[in-house]
Amino acid sequence: MIPTSDYLLLSGLLFTLGIVGVLIRRTAVLVFLSVELMLNAANLAMVAFARAWGQLQAQSAVFIVMTLAAAEVAIGLAILIAIFRKRVSTEVDPLSEMKG
Amino acid sequence: MPLPHISVMLLLPFIILLLTTAACTALGFLVHRQAVTWTAMAGLIITAASLIPLWDRHLSSFGGALLGDPFGIALSLVILLGALLALLSSLDSAKRSSLSFPEYDLMLLLGVLGSVLLAMAGNLIVLLIGLEIMSLSAYVLATLQASRSSEEAGMKYFLLGAVGSAVLIYGIALVYGATGHFGLSGIAAALGHAAASNLPVLLLGTLMLLVGFGFKVALVPFHQWTPDVYSGSPTLVTLYMSVVIKTAAFAGLIRVFQMALSGVHGWVIPAEVIIALTLILGNFAALREENFKRMLAYSAVAHSGYLALALVAKSSLAEPALIYYLLTYTLMNAGAFAVVAVLQRDDSGVTISDLRGLYSRRPGLAVALAALLASLSGLPPFAGFFGKFVLFSAALQSGFVGLTVIAAVTSMAALFYYLRPAALMFFSEPAQTPQLPAAPRQYSAVAVWVAVGGTLLIGVLPNLVMQLLQRPLT
After folding, report:
1. B151 and A86: CB-CB below 8 Å?
2. Measured distance CA(B289)–CA(B201) in Å, rounded
């Protein structure tokens, strides 16, 4: 049986990749993709912990997180399309008309 | 295995909110937008009425996943009050912001549903669901206006909010991994006998929860979205975000850290650093803002710092102080943004020099705004003063002397940026800029005067509220 720590290592790696992606990617779609990677890392950790504790509730929590991620995709893509219609680009950098 | 205990009384507020949302969705196709808004407001009032009988009964549903304790109920009532003020001032201001369509009311109602769920959550998964319902509807609200700045604000809010949620979810996974529980009381009980090898995971999870909530309540350095999102969103949406979302996110933050994780070692010092940074940066960044809406955004960041004092304070005063200050903050911030919504030419808000000589043109509004600014800066006899006083005493009682001193000194600095616009309104000649709009604004005026009256009333008689909070809150 693969030990829980291996799963956690993989999950931590995915999460770090996600954070790096958020920080260095310049198009909204790829930033968004990186966030999804972070969510999946959390899901992997939850499933691994659920196995270690021998409980089912974290397994079902993963489905809730997946549903939330799907809802987030729907809204995120809608905002993205609204922006793309006016600016014909999904780059993040030009979105600084308010000098943030 | 026994069936989970369900208390229907406790579910009633959620059922009423959902039915109101459904009714408003259907009505949106049939009637004028204002009728939808009135329906939504009636729904919010009925929801509040259904919460009051639960006050001292400490009900819980679904094995503690939903808690009807006074803490959750009081903050839910504050949330409903904030949403009511947002809807009331939207009755006349929404048309000029081209927001006068039923989607505004629907998204706001859904956000309130998520916020109330977040305030009453007794389980990390329920808390997450509430938080996401609230955030997702807020992303839509920020983008609702068909303008470039609104879309930019929505995108920024969405991307940073999604990152915050992802960090929060990872924190939940780690806390679950270390304790084997999602329920807040279960986590607190498991902390006593957690294996030593689990402690690093637990601390990491706790810190990630702190960061995730830090994004939601705008604590430095996770506040970067705040000025852009607050100033880019339509002012009515900013009003809603700055009161309802802040209250709900603080309800979740304080509940998780006071009820479940207060026994974890090692998070208090990072939290202190974050709070000190928030107080300093929020207040000093507000000093150099010329746009009134951006100034209020930084003021909201600074107020997150004051409110977060209740996070570290271990005194029994912490939770009453938090509730009192969130009520005060809801009244004064909703009032201030409602004034901006009345005065603005477009949704970029007003600049501070636009306020020059406002007293000679709009004496009523100028007096109201001056009172709200005085309350925000913490001057007596307004509620902002007493609110800061109890928060600072809660922090001081728990031995956070340095933090309290920083909070007191930065609130002195805050006097400058709050009182400068107030002074300009009264003592300056009117600006030569084009006149501000003069359409009738009776509903916004009601919202503003309710806010001013409320801050004055609970400022002069703070015991009206504090007496109600003298009981076990959680």
Report:
1. yes
2. 41
